[in-house]
Design a protein that fits this description.
6 helices; 5 strands; 43% helix; globular
Amino acid sequence: MGKLFDDINKYFNESSSEQLKNDWEELKKYNDEGPDIEDIILSSENFILFSKCINEIDKISKLEENWDCYDAVVPSEIVIENAKKFVSLIFNNGYKVFDKENIYPTPYGSIIIDIEPKDDYYVSIEIGKAAIGWFTKFGKNNYPEELMSDIYETNFKSLPEELKIALDKLYSII
């Protein structure tokens, strides 16, 4: 079925959400007598967004050194895998990345994922080799209580509670 299918299969099977695992297993049962698995994936908004995010991270993995003509570093394989794991965690916890354009490399080898459901409202997360950091913006004049992290070491198996608080606040405002 291809690399995209394999990536989606891998990350949904590693999901901590039993509902997503069950839904994915149900979709995989279709064969030649039923709808094509890729057609089924395309019928689900979350599967579409998830696969676009994984594709965008794969594009970043193909960058070459000095990709910005100012000595930018290419994200390492570890950072690429961490970004994919993180996207999986975002979706598995009921959040989503609304636009693949909100996933982009930094010149020093990390990857930024902005969760921006509407202009001027977002949580911006930076993914590194063993840690993440984030900050928020809640409106044009900023929400009275901005949330920002220090560098947070993680194994990329669960979302930090402080980040969940920031994401919940974002979703409650919009």
